[in-house]
Write a structure and sequence with these properties.
By secondary structure, the chain is mostly helical. The protein has helices at residues 6-9, 17-31, 40-63, 74-97, 105-117, 129-145, 148-154, 158-175, 189-211, 218-235. The two termini are 36 Å apart. Residues 263-272 have a biased composition (Low complexity).
Amino acid sequence: MTRYTASEVIQLPRLTAVGAMALGEQLLSAAKPYKKQLAKGIARVLSALSSRHGDLAAALRDQVSLPGGGEPSEDAVQCDRVLDSCWSGLHDFLTAFTKLPPGAPEVAEASSLKAALFPGGLKFLQLTYVLQWSESELRIQRIRKNGLDARLEALGGKRFLAALEAAHAAYGKALGVTAPAATAAEAPPSVREALDAFTEALRAYVIKVMGAVEPDEPETQELADKLLAPLAGWSVGPNGRGAARKNGKPEDDVPPPLPPDLPSADLLPSGL
């Protein structure tokens, strides 16, 4: 007898391991405010999704390697420092405007930009290398998609933005996450297994969320839209794709991910 399976019914965007890591963070963040409202079935699959996401994070932390494997290269460490300085500099630039006298137009604009780009402050700079790259990528995509670049330039931040984009590009290259797919190494088995498990958990989550929608109860569709907004944005971004990346720095408190604002970016090489 022919049966439909979750993998056949639910088609997900093509995800790399680090891309799935970022998308998972956004989905879990999107669900957090509604946990008490979720039906038991949705809560159960959300818990499974969270568990598989944790497994994927552990696999990446242990096995996603920098060029040459093991410790980060000297070039990667230097690029990391430069990118940290660029983000910190942009943060300080916007903070300086917020210290102008109340009522100055730049105060509100700088405060708005700072909230959009640094919802958790600069804690994301303490994440491991590949995860910091991911947070940096999401912020840069937000700048491009939402027209924040023009607003930053209007405040005089064009030089900061140019330096930031150059540093981010150099960082991705030094880490090996933006290397051409033809030269990317095969993903370690544990990473591939964790990615497959996360993907199946994600399909189960989508099925449960959409299955709870009742045609005569618009609030159920509204909740489903909020829960799946990051996935919808990942699928229909400017390039039809979404992504993220980092690896190897001492970990500090993990900041909250950027609010689910439908970011998108180029996928990483298929080897990750």
